[in-house]
Amino acid sequence: MPKPFLLIKIILFLGLFSVSALGFAEQSDSEKADEIFKLLDNGTIEKNQTYQIYLAELDTLIPKTDIQRQLRLTRARCWAFDAFEEGQVSKALAFAEQALNNPNLANYPNDKLDLELCQTWYTEQDGDVDLALAGYNKAIAQAYALENLRLVADARGMRGYLHSYQGNFTQGLEDLLTSHSLYQSLALPAWSRTSLYEIATSYRRLGDQKSAIRYFKQLQNSYIKSNNLDSANATKVSIAIAEEESGNLERAKLLFEEGYRYWKTNNQELEQATVAVNIAGTLIQLGELEQASQYLNEAEPFILPTDEAFYSFLHLFRAQIYLAHDQLPQAHKSIAYARAAFNRVKNLRGLAQLQMVESQIFLEESQWQQAYFALSEYVKMHNELDAKLLSSYTTEMRTRFNASQIEEENRHLIENQQLKELEVAMLEQNKRQQWIIIVLGSFLMLIISVFAYKQIQKNRLLSALALTDDLTQLPNRRYIYDKAQSRFEEAQSALLPLSVIVFDADYFKQINDKYGHEVGDQALVLLAETCRDLLPPEHKAARVGGEEFLILLVDTDMTQAYKIAKDLVQKVSESNFSAFPQGFTMTISAGVANLRAEDNKLSQLLKRADDALYHAKSEGRNQAKMS
Q: Which residues make Cβ contacts (< 8 Å) with residue 602, sequence separation at least 6?
């Protein structure tokens, strides 16, 4: 089934409210411009003629000497290109390249970062997902450094979608939940709904169709209440996809047909074509091949190769129909088109499905060797997907557990931004009322000095809080991962040993279920205290998930690290549990890994530790295992 790559874009743009021109009669040109910018930024204007009219009006309102607003206009122009129109992506990339050469950007880092993010998004639309992912990673780091919450939300939302589409639900869900929380805090309902759609889609890809349908219906009701029927219909199609993946083919067929008729009635040919591809996939599973072929014929003129998701599945479905009719040369040709599109966006799920169909084609041709190879590739990809899915289920639970932590971190960031906005507003007012500054200059300087001192103190406190786990007072995930990356690079360059220990509490869910979450929290505190008692100051322990901890051991080889892990396991099992309810016991399992010469990424070291932890669990728990 084609994943809703284009449906996301449909909801992103059709889901925005069209608005009428505001009355700016009694406002200054700068105030009028700022009101228009607010409309554009809030996502309440579609990328159509109205959007271009507003850009043209901004041209007349903003003088060339107003550098800040001119840069903001450049940003708006960068996002104005319609990625659905042929040739627009290339034009957008050329525009962004030229805009980033503006020397004034050196003094406006937020504007520069937004243009770089714009360039990265169009790079993704152009099909270079690896370069786009690197761009998103860089943009997120810079947005946090600038404490620009809007750019944090935008960049993490874009990266979250890309990770989710590629099957990396670990980072995808964490990014999307963070983005959704920030959009809600920033009072941006249009973008909040877009991120909600992405979260629902991630649950669907994860295989939790029940949760996905619940989120989709929540989103659909929101659109219906606001009379946004286009987006409500696009969401209905997403529900149909989830129903199909749940095995409810007749229900999926009914919803797809309703969505198809809506787009047809409203003369939305492209949207109609995307639903036609989805219906065809369902009909093939139901054995209704002739009707499926008719839908594909209707869709093909509107589905371009640049719409990789639908283009790839359109040809994959054609290959299945050709196979059923014993038209094997045509089937091979369609397989080639589908494979090229799947490879461009690195869609492993689609490629696995393609390998199965191709093996069946080779079987019909009695080409046994090619059929065996294709089937082997299918099994390999299927196993890889299963491994990702298992990891994703674990990640989903960690993400849900950490949702309150994400909200707390976002709240601190929002407070900092509000303080910055207050400072900017004060400076703007001072420019307009300079006679007040002259009269009250000394008094204001005193106030600003006190305010700055308090701000410094608060920033220090917020910085400490942002890097500390509130329950255990150990460093948190963000701190330890940054520290681990630094130590990893130092150990590589200096050829020093480096080891890590990953451990978590055995049967922790049963502890919470039997004794309650308060006792569970008390148990986590005990684990943190045990780490502090056992480890010397040069080693760092941190809480990175619900009941999961990470220990970073600098200048420590595998033998030393394994001994520390065993000592930790023993000390926890022999702990004094007298302060806990009667009968309470607790053990941990640990995985140990050390830096190898062939490691070029921190993630390789951490994954070996995770694998060793999994081995310790499978071998009976209450023990440590080396990778």
A: 481, 484, 485, 488
Task: Kindly report the number of other CB atoms within 10 A of residue 610's CB atom.
Answer: 20
Q: Average pLDDT in the 582-592 region?
A: 94
CA distances (Å), origin 471, targets 77, 501, 528, 581, 589: 46, 21, 10, 20, 21
Neighbours of 441 (CB within 10 A): 12
Three-class DSSP category at 577: coil
Confidence of residue 382 (pLDDT cuts 50, 70, 90): confident
Facing residues of 505 across strands?
A: 588
**pTM as predicted:** 0.49
Q: Domain spans of the chain?
A: 403-466, 477-626
The fold adopted by the segment(s) 477-626 is Alpha-Beta Plaits (3.30.70)
CB 109, CB 146: distance < 8 Å: yes
Angstrom distance (rounded) from CA 528 to CA 93:
49
Token duo for residue 406: 């994400």
Distance, C-alpha 481 to centroid of its chain: 18
Query: How many angstroms separate the CA atoms of 488 and 329, rounded?
Result: 52
For residues 125-147, one letter each, b for 16 or more C-beta atoms within 10 angstroms of the residue's C-beta and e for the rest, the string is: bbbebeebbebbeebbebbbebb
When mean pLDDT is compared over 105-114, 215-224, 382-391, 397-406, the highest value belongs to 105-114
Q: Is 547 assigned a catalytic role?
A: yes
Determine the Cα–Cα distance for residues 429 and 444; give it in Å rounded to an integer: 13
Q: Could you tell me the two tokens for 141?
A: 């780091």
Structure tokens at 390: 């298992």
**Burial of 517 (C-beta count, 10 Å sphere; 0-12/13-18/19+):** exposed
Burial of 520 (0-12, 13-18, 19+ CB in 10 A): buried
Highest mean pLDDT among 191-200, 258-267, 305-314: 258-267
Q: What percentage of the chain has pLDDT greater than the value 70?
A: 82
Task: Answer yes or no: are the C-beta atoms of 503 and 590 closer than 8 Å.
Answer: yes
- Residue pLDDT, tens place only, 205-240: 777 888 889 889 988 998 898 888 988 999 999 899
Confidence of residue 592 (pLDDT cuts 50, 70, 90): very high
Q: Residue 286: count other Cβ atoms within 10 Å of its Cβ.
A: 14
Write out the two tokens for 579.
């302060």
The catalytically annotated residue of 116, 174, 547, 548 is 547
